[in-house]
Amino acid sequence: MAVTQEMHDSKNVFGEPLIACSTRPLTGFFRDGCCNTNDQDYGSHTVCVEVTDAFLKFSRERGNDLSTPVEEFGFPGLNPGDRWCLCAARWLEAHEADMAPRVYLQRTHVRALETVSLEILRQYAVDLN
Q1: What distance in Å separates the CA atoms of residue 30 and residue 58, rounded to the nearest whole number?
Q2: For a FRET experiment, which of 30, 38, 93, 98 has its CA 20 to 30 Å from that of 3?
Q3: Residue 23 and residue 104: Cα distance in Å, rounded?
Q4: Tens of pLDDT along 8-67?
Q5: Is the dihedral of CA 47, 52, 55, 56 positive or negative?
């Protein structure tokens, strides 16, 4: 089914232009490399993370295997160190279980703040000076 609604403004959590999260592997709800979103993105794939082995195991145990390739969907499977646009609620769940991966705030869409506070995200920031 094609996505027909337009994207929400491509702004990060600081209100600045959203920076691409990853093109290898190609991520995002729109598979445009960015954590862009719209109202059809029910999972809110808005948090740009650097996945870890521990997080991949955690996600697999929760029923979302992100490490196994799914060729029919063009999904290569993730490896530790890959960047990925993660569902905000899944990231929060991982945070609450002390399994959350690090976050790229400049690459995280502002709509992630509807689920997770900036204060919590900052604790995991990779890209703060």
Answers
A1: 25
A2: 93
A3: 15
A4: 789 999 999 999 999 999 999 999 999 999 999 999 999 999 999 999 999 999 999 999
A5: positive
User: What are φ and ψ of residue 45, in 5° steps?
Assistant: -75, 70
pTM score, two decimals? Answer: 0.91
Q: Looking at residue 109, which CATH number applies to its domain?
A: 3.30.56.110
Classify residue 3: in a domain, yes or no.
Answer: no
- What's the DSSP call for residue 129? -
107: in domain? yes
Torsion of the alpha carbons at 2, 12, 91 and 52, rounded to the nearest 10: 100
Whether 22 contacts 78, CB under 8 Å: no
Record the tokens describing residue 26, joined without a space: 């190609």
Q: What is the DSSP letter of 8?
A: P
Q: Which residues pair with 48 in a beta bridge?
A: 85
